[in-house]
User: Fold this.
Amino acid sequence: MTTLNSKDLVKRGAIWAFIAAELAFFSIAGQFLSGSDSNFLDPGNMLLLLKQSAPLGIIALGMTIIMINGNIDLSVGATFALAGVVLLDSLSWPFMEDLGDWAIPLAWMFALLTGMVLGAINGLIVWKTGVDAFIVTLAAMLGYRGLVFMYNGEQPTSNMNWTLVDFAEAQFLGVHTPTWFLLGTAVVLWLLMTRTVHGRNAYAIGDNREAAVNAGIRVGPHILWNFVLIGFLAALSAVVFFSESGSVNPNDGMLFELWAITAVVLGGTKLAGGYGSIISTLGGVIAIQLLRKGLGHIGADTQTVNLVIGLILIAVLILDRHLNRKGKEELKI
Amino acid sequence: MTGMTRKDVGTFIAKQGILIAFVIFMIGFAMANQRFIQIDNISGVIRSSAILGVMALGVTFVVIGGNLDLSVGSMMSFSTIVVLDLHDKIGPALAIPAMFALTLALGAFIGLLVGYLRLNSLIVTLGMLSAIHGLTLTWSGGKNMDIENKATTWFWFFGQDRILNIPVPILIFAVLAVVLGLLLAKTPFGRKVYAVGGNDQAATFSGIPRARVVFMTYIISAFCVATAGLLQASRSMGSQNNVGQGMELEVLAAVILGGASLMGGAGTVFKTVIGVLILGFIQNGLLLMGMDFYVRYMVTWAIIILAVWLDVAAKRGRLWSPIA
Amino acid sequence: MNDPTPVLRLEGIVKTFPGVRALDDVSFNVLPGEVHALMGENGAGKSTLMKVLGGIHAPDEGQIFIAEEPTVMTSPIDAKAKGVVFIHQELSLAGELSVAENIFLGELPLKGLGVVDWKKLYGDTNAILKTLNVGFDATTRVEDLSIANQQMVEIARALTADPRAVIFDEPTASLTDAEKVVLFDVIADLKARGVGIIYISHRMEEIFKITDRISVLRDGACRGTLITRETDENEVTKLMIGRSLDLTRNTVHHELGDVALEVRGLSCGDLYRDVDFAVRKGEVLGFYGLVGAGRTEIAETIFGLRTPSAGQILRDGQKVNIASPVEAIRLGIALVPENRKSQGLVLGMNCRDNMTLPQVGDLTAGPFVSDGAEISIFDQYRDKLDIRTPGWRQTVGNLSGGNQQKIVIGKWLSMRPDVLIVDEPTRGIDVGSKAEIHNLIRDLAAQGYAVIVISSEMPEVLHVSDRIVAMYSGRVMRTFTSDEVTEDNLIQAISGISADKVA
Assistant:
């Protein structure tokens, strides 16, 4: 809630300018290159795009808080997969089958609880051992993935529940269920980060941890709650995604952590913590999804998406460094 | 233990913890199953760890220099696909050097960005992970790559042959470990890597060309990745596009397990080798004990956290973190 | 004075760590409305004492009284609740947050449900800021403030606790003179409100300007409490070091050789401009000026770490272009940097490796670093500089400040440079080692080195220099010989009082 100076405006506006540029480029380039006659800016197409960005988006929003807090979570992909497994497998448990459609909210709860427990384990370890979150969650990425494999080996876990699929594919006011989840998450987290003590403390801890400790903020529990939150969101993302697909592969969600971090960084959140915004991350997520769809639209190989996103990420970094330079007389270190 | 205070013992355990853990594991597994310590089993484990190990050697340099390399997995896929593809087009004798040149060029690009432009290595290599994956897919057209005529080529030598009854991958891993170990521990360049990782400003103020040193660590990493790609391609004589996917984090886990600090300036090649072997032997030992194959992930998880925790605890002089 | 109740009193505080008696029966008190200076060399026990006061260490013996009530502090937060607050040297603020959020960090006002009451927050903050008479408001982002104003934010934060005692730890370390005046006004204001103040500083002028009493710590014991207006610098110094320190003007002059380094019209953006000077072999050239006057930046330019925007550097009369430290070293120029820990040393490395770092590439046998060559260099300079360390394997981070500085100096002497630039040679170093380093600098000049000493301490420049360059705001105001310099004209020159008046 500080007053904004022009540099901030540039920083916050950059991702939206980039999205606007993408939209302009793909709709114009599409006219010349695209085999299909469809308009890239077609509302249906845009709504679909939002829906498709929901699973990654929900995780990236949570990652924003973790990164503002000065930590990182590399285990979200594995948590995503395990929550998906629990969601679909629990529907086939005998007592659940007896419950009919009432099993669905219960299955969701199991999945969400799974995510929260996994997040809590990470958070507790980070808090109590003082080991860097990067290492803790890197190890957890292997450990949690192991749990996924132990559940069902290399086999996919499937359960097509049509009530569930119908819900996931439903549209309310023309907007798909997953998109509502994405937007809802964004609003709640935005309020959390801008209006509440927890959110403001997240910034303070990421910015200057020692100062926060000295001010009497209980940093340990704070970090724990954030990890519980991102575990919950990884599971929520799984709920949104697997309700529709009805099948989890043990490798699902691999590299999700890296995509989520990419979206967060594109949104301008500082890696070192203390600075970042939920809304900008939403922009980062949309920018990535636009790129995926847009490249397809203009007939580029889908394989080039990875190449382009990687290079854009690096270009953003170079640009950011260039903008922050103090001039030629800067110390050459 | 005369003259050793409790603190000394604590420091000793913390410093040599990884070695002690290794020995305990080996003894435990050996008691549980005799087969574990038979030569062919041990040789098998090392051979299957060689690819991961070779990559970990290079990443050790990058990490000690104070940076990260998350791109090694996707770079290894690239090397594998490229050498397999070129094998059929220009023959192995040209394909191998060509693949090395291309991989080193990628390493040089990263080194340029992180070393000379001073960009954050986590994000740069994250971007490169994605970009190189895209490059690989573009190169292969999304298809798997296979050597056409497997019977007439000598390409299988690197991954499958033996010299003096020792599998070639083990020999390559060992030679590389010794050479790179000496480079890091004994040469001026190695000293500079430690200095830059320990305090890059002080290194610059001492006339050490920080950028060039960082650049070279990425070149070394890329060289190791190319070697790993060669071993992978030669062992399987065919490959999917994503053969190295996820390896970046397993490699990093091995390096950290070996005691290299993510802050830079600490770690050794020898300890990384131990880290790699621990991961390999645990996997093998658990299998021999009849455990679920995937239990190894859980055990790896626990070991990494315990190892780093021990290290952190020794440095701060207390087991639990003081944060409230 | 009929003894008012002290706001804070320490009685017989003892604190031991394994092998060290860090505090030995320390007693002193702070009266309401008093500024009480706490002085002592580094390692004398000041910081341990503050940690006891702040509840970080529990004392082994002794008692803390607040308004004569026996009190136990359990943490800095507890201390604050009991009315004892600290203004630390290292500011602890979150730069991206607003002034208001920083001031009320950890105790943001709520509307319930964990939602921040912004209106109350900004209102309360502005009320406090008003009493401090500062030129920024509650919503300003802290990072956009000057260091001095950030310090005001810290002080405002301290005031929220309605403190009985405020402890300032080296508050003027990075303030300009004008900013110091503002700070002293605030301290006077606190004093008028009856707050007791503990003022920790090494700077004698300030101590004598603003404090009422001075307590001196040495080797963990309180060596005496003096009434400021009844004592002088000599007496305080004697208490601090147990003898009087001879910091007289340098009067010894020896034969000077040729000009080793000359700078003509050197400029670097806004940092400094049109700088001219020359230093001869056998000469110590002092650079004196306020922090931010451009002295360090000139040294960094000569050492190849900055690109000059205009001007020339001549080495032995030859025009040279120095683009990197590697080239500077090749030209026989060495720099002992301002910040020892972040620029001078790799703290996690051992003594020997730090010392041989710039030349490790040349100390080889075959492809490998030669252990013998390294150790012989280390031994040679350890003896020459009298570096006290258990052995070369000792990690540099474990040495005292003085010995660390000697390692950095040894690192460069072992390269046998012709020009040695030393930036703040004795910052954060105890008085005993200071004298050794001053003697060393004089000796080096006598041996024919051209030495440039940059310092913010006037006694130090006067003591070691043959000539003194006075800088103000990026410009050389005047160059003095040691015969013409007086404390007065030097101060005038570095305060920017019109150049032609002093010239």
DSSP finds 14 helices and four strands in chain A. Chain A has a mean pLDDT of 86. Residues 125 and 131 of chain A are 7 Å apart (CA to CA).
